[in-house]
């Protein structure tokens, strides 16, 4: 049997077609399409994407399609991770995105995965259209694609808050957890909304909705090697697609750490570590000190054609997976690009490991990684996307801001606070869109409101920005920050997503500050032992100049103030504060506020 597999592998490698599509990058393709007055076939894909591999294996290897494309089209292939600007403009809701463009880059048609027969029909239909028909179609498509965004600021009062919460809860699948969709993605913000809902109303029903969501996410964890898969194709979280993206490992491990802190279920801590350890063991480049972008779903050849599908590979135990790798002399592909945004997310996950695992090495790795991000990525308009694509995207800035502030909380190092402040004001100055009243990428290519599962949406990244601003306001509560934060939140409640519910919470029941004052500055991980997502712990020495500025005092012994921006609710002697005492304050605060 093993000999047969070796022969089969050899034959697969030997049989490559000379008649292939010659793909151009976006700029080259656009230039050539204008010169030759040809339509553009745009393929947006990613190295980790199963359906992209499948389309390469079937559709783009079909001789008829190769012939049609080479005769009538300028073929353009774009890496969705590298060129987020193009992906944002043209993505049709997932990968692969298949689009037909005019020679000047205007979209005529968009879809996702297309099998060979469907692709032939699409290609021949557009190839046979007259110049007048193409122009009419372009005008219709342009009108239809313009987003009708009228994001007015709406007041958030108690009645609005209740309405938004009810609307947000209606989005959640009560039977299986997560969004009420047939295809299920693990989304961290769903967990945070459900945790807040549970703390505010601690009953059996609310706990069940939260635990069902976490149990759904658990089904996507690779039991053999750890890490979490990108999504499940069935509503009950089964039949996963097997890509493992760095951003998911970072975001969902942090969500599990937070859930563990609230529910005290050690299985959740184990889940967090299974996900995080995969990133540390498989995606970390210890020599260069950063994390790779992703692990692909399938074993593929040099052209991206599938040799072993993820469905087969991940059904095996670790030993059998290694055997398949030895047969094909290939492993699952790793995208070794250094994406600054995703590495900033990993900084946060590593700090959480320090908090919950007492892992000092992970904190050291996080600090070294953040200093690398700042040294090599920080330019005049913020943090760049990658070494090779020096563009500025909002998610990179906000992810970095979030991790910088967390590092300041944990280490007390003013380097992180100063860098945070400088980057924050760069974002406020350079990334605001007057058209919609929210923040967008520095070079905005137009709004794409499709829910794209593997990138932060306009809504989620603006919510994260508002929350980052709030965390900093205790140290610098000026009118600009207050106005900016509130304006974002009053617009986000217009959307039909969990971020609307989180925005209502952030406006009326925002995170608590735990302000620890002692003779010497001394961070205590205990302060973040309960729901650190909604808990801003800051440490000060008795001589800290910031302390008098924000209105707190040293009373001759270590003390912890529990406060909002406007007033303090409790004062604890440091020696008497526990996770349970913090939890009780949160419960009273969320229920009564």
TrEMBL record:
It comes from the Bacteria. The keyword Ion transport does not apply. Residues 1-18 form the signal peptide. It comes from Sulfurihydrogenibium azorense. This is Thioredoxin domain-containing protein. GO terms for biological process: carbohydrate metabolic process. Coiled coil: none annotated. Keywords: Signal. Gene3D superfamilies: 1.50.10.10, Glutaredoxin. InterPro entries: 6-hairpin_glycosidase_sf, 6hp_glycosidase-like_sf, Ssp411, Ssp411-like_TRX, Thioredoxin-like_sf. Residues 17-132 form the Spermatogenesis-associated protein 20-like TRX domain. It holds the Pfam family Thioredox_DsbH.
